[in-house]
Amino acid sequence: MRHPEWIKVSLAGMHDTKKVLRHHGVSTVCEEARCPNRGKCFSESTATFMILGDRCTRNCAFCAVESSLPLPPDPDEPQRVAEAAVELGLKFVVITSVTRDDLSDGGADQFAKTIRAVRQMGKSIKIEVLTPDFKGSTEALNAVLGAMPDVFNHNIETVPRLYGAVRPMADYGTSLDILKNAKKLYPEATSKSGIMVGLGEDEGEVLQVMKDLRDAECDILTVGQYLRPGRRNIPVVEYITPAVFEKYRAAALGLGFRAVASSPLTRSSMNAEKIFDENRG
Q1: Domains and CATH numbers, the chain
Q2: Portion of the chain with pLDDT greater than 70, in percent
Q3: What's phi and psi for 51, nearest 5 deg?
Q4: Average pLDDT, whole number, for the chain?
Q5: How many other CB atoms sit within 10 Å of the CB of residue 72?
Q6: Alpha carbon distance, N-terminus to C-terminus of the chain
Q7: How far is CA 269 from CA 38, 102, 162, 199, in A?
Q8: What is the DSSP letter of 13?
Q9: Is it the case that residue 10 has pLDDT exceeding 70?
């Protein structure tokens, strides 16, 4: 399906940021997941770091990241991420990862080490983590939250009815529980989640997901249009109009979310610092 007129993607202006990333040998979800905003973000010297390699143990139908047996965690990776963040001059750092079901802790220890490494190099830097579900492990969640990120993010991604097609190796209830438990274990952190639309869901289902997230005391919500990153990925069912995105934004604020980003090109990590400041305000 051809993109409608309200979705315009540009990949210009990425060179300098990519040069820094390559120099430090770090990966970004911007590149690995083929994010449509990577040109804009890289031109502003921002990026979302992706730790634990570039191979995922799951096969979500919407994602462009390679699904295969990953390599062992790199012990030098946390320091390289920290050095790249400082060289880019970031005041707000977002750290995500592939899903590592092959590791006993799901990669939680690497998250904690990376948070601490960034904090050591830039004590005033705010940090958001966007984690996998750790198979619901409270122990893994405790390990990440013990490093005291400012924002804990876990994306719900889609409505329950579509999980079998979109996230066949994940579980809606487990994702909700991760957000609920994060708030119980570390109420000082801002909690955040995101959903993609255009996969065949209806407005009632989206509204119910919002209600479920509010029941989990989620503070921030992002809503964005699913865009097919490659031919092997699930097709777009519908392009949602900007008017409907505005409707979702108003509904989410009405339900009590403290900050909401809702637009066709909204992505979970895009403008993360701005939406964090809105939440605090």
Answers
A1: 15-280 (3.20.20.70)
A2: 98
A3: -100, 175
A4: 92
A5: 9
A6: 39
A7: 11, 25, 23, 20
A8: S
A9: no
Residue 28: pLDDT band by 50, 70, 90 thresholds? confident
Which residue is associated with the tokens 């999980």? 163
The DSSP secondary-structure symbol of 14 reads -
Whole-angstrom Cα distance, residue 248 to residue 262? Answer: 7
Compute the average pLDDT of residues 83-97: 93
Burial of residue 89 (CB within 10 Å: 0-12, 13-18, 19+) is: exposed
pLDDT band at 106 (very low <50, low <70, confident <90, very high): very high
DSSP conformation letters of 64-76: -SEESPPPPPPTT
Q: 223 - beta bridge partners?
A: 195, 262
DSSP codes of every residue in 82-108: HHHHHHTT-SEEEEEE---TTSTTTTH
Neighbours of 170 (CB within 10 A): 19
**Contact 219/279 with Cβ under 8 angstroms?**
yes
Q: Is this model's pTM higher than 0.90 or not? A: yes
The residue behind tokens 């329950």 is 160
| Pick from 155, 242, 243: nearest CA to 193 | 155
Of the candidates 149, 56, 158, the one whose C-alpha atom is nearest the C-alpha of residue 97 is: 56
The mean per-residue pLDDT over the stretch 249-266 comes to 97
Distance CA(236)–CA(119), nearest Å, equals: 39
List C-alpha distances in Å: 168 to 29, 61, 205.
21, 8, 18
